[in-house]
Amino acid sequence: MAIASNILEVVLSSSSFGNKAMSVIGFGMAADSNDGATLKSAVLEAIKLGYRHFNTASAYGSEQALGEGIAQALKLGLVSSREELFITSKLWSSDAHPDLVLPTLHKSVRTLQLEYIDLYLIHWPITVKPGKGGWPFAEEDMMPMDFKSVWAAMEECQRLGLAKFIGVSNFSCKKLQNLLSSSTIPPAVNQVEMSPVWQQKKLRDFCKENGIVVTAFSPLGAKGTSWGTNHVMENEVLMDIAKARGKTVAQVCLRWMYEQGVTLVMKSYNKERLKENLQIFDWELSEDDSKKISEIKQHRMMLKEELISARGPYKSIEELWDGEL
Known about the structure:
Elements: E1 3-4, E2 7-14, E3 18-23, E4 25-28, H1 36-49, E5 53-55, H2 63-76, E6 86-91, H3 101-111, E7 117-122, E8 127-128, E9 142-143, H4 147-159, E10 163-169, H5 173-182, E11 189-193, H6 201-209, E12 213-217, H7 236-245, H8 249-259, E13 263-266, H9 271-278, H10 287-294, H11 305-309, H12 317-320
Parallel strand pairs: 4-5, 4-13, 5-6, 6-7, 7-10, 10-11, 11-12, 12-13
Antiparallel strand pairs: 1-2, 2-3, 8-9
């Protein structure tokens, strides 16, 4: 891993566009409330602190604010060129139709005021009727995804240079295997829920074996959001390790995930917490710490009533996750 600013990086490789470094820690742009001015200010502050990877999605409603923040950062000289940044966005389920993938990416690129994005992900392994993308999805609007055709359209996005890399989000081992069996360009990244209380070892092992980088979203449990949980930040094992180490619970969580070989994205508007979250690269957890964390009782944060009710074409939430609960 190389160092850019003060954050370690992993390198993604593409036969079409060569290599591009992606920061291990990225700044997340999902929020219950997307106030443009607040988001733009947060982007600028994050860039000043050394963040270079920004994770957004068309469904988040934050692409415009991110684009404005990037433009302002360039104008102020906070970064010397757009190439210093790594921008991820995602294809929402109502646009997960072969004929809508490319125009939807064009729209995101325009909204971001960019010529391309670095990484484009399929947001969910679910398709919804066009124009029916409100969350939670209505069951009658949902349908199984045509993975082969949608992925072929994603591959075309990469060939055209609108996305330097393509990947997926919320995909299980089984769905990844199905995708790999018919793809020409394999997914570079699988972005999934992961934290010390939802460790995803089977999925991590599968992705490692297949050269897919795992990016963890909500690594601290997203406490305080409508979809979040306090299971991470209030976990007694993590709190005890943090106290003994003189670290924050967040730092212990992030360091543990870094030691598992994954990348991560998280959001904070607090400058001190943004700083603290970067201070994980110059120390290590002990074997005893790691053993204690490996024994934490597991809870999937997103196993919630609204997700269960939105299982759509799947007979059960277990089928949506291919039994990987």
